[in-house]
Design brief:
Length: about 170
């Protein structure tokens, strides 16, 4: 089922600007990742806590619950769909969660904005499996995405994946 576009989406997103980091991305991500522009997470979070990341955060329930339970970590939630991202930001704001920020971009450009080996853990929760062979390169477990994760994960970093697709 497709989600309908939220009414007044731009105004709602504008209310969440303190939680959303929106990088400027052109249509060619290969060109984008050549020119590094790392985010300063010490400045954003105002601390030096370890960084955890969820890619494809959806409505934000998982990342917000985790951030509430573990305030000693900083959480980065990545979501490409602004309609869904809006709901996740509102959830974090309504619960007063201060150790989570949201990045509005696709996973393929993360190496442009995240310093190498700075993320302790990546969560991939119920990502769209794109079951057809033709869409295999869109899966968040595709080799091109795994190379991105390898670059941003710390040397002892972990990827935690959950799925309900038996073939995935």
């Amino acid at each position: 089922m497709r989600m309908r576009r939220k009414k007044h989406l731009e105004e709602k997103l504008a209310c969440c600007t303190n939680l959303i980091v929106t990088p400027s991305i052109t249509s060619d991500y290969r060109e984008e990742i050549r020119n590094k522009s790392y985010f300063d997470f010490k400045d954003i979070f105002k601390n030096d806590n370890p960084l955890m990341m969820e890619i494809g955060c959806g409505k934000g329930k998982f990342i917000c619950e985790l951030a509430k339970r573990e305030p000693e970590y900083n959480y980065i939630a990545v979501e490409v769909n602004p309609n869904v991202l809006c709901g996740a930001c509102e959830l974090a704001m309504n619960n007063g969660i201060e150790n989570v920020i949201f990045i509005k971009c696709g996973a393929e450009v993360l190496t442009k904005y995240i310093k190498p080996h700075s993320i302790e853990r990546i969560y991939l929760n119920f990502s769209c499996p794109f079951p057809k062979k033709a869409y295999e390169n869109r899966r968040l477990t595709n080799a091109r995405f795994l190379s991105v994760y390898k670059e941003i994960l710390s040397y002892s970093g972990e990827i935690h994946q959950k799925t309900d697709n038996m073939n995935f």
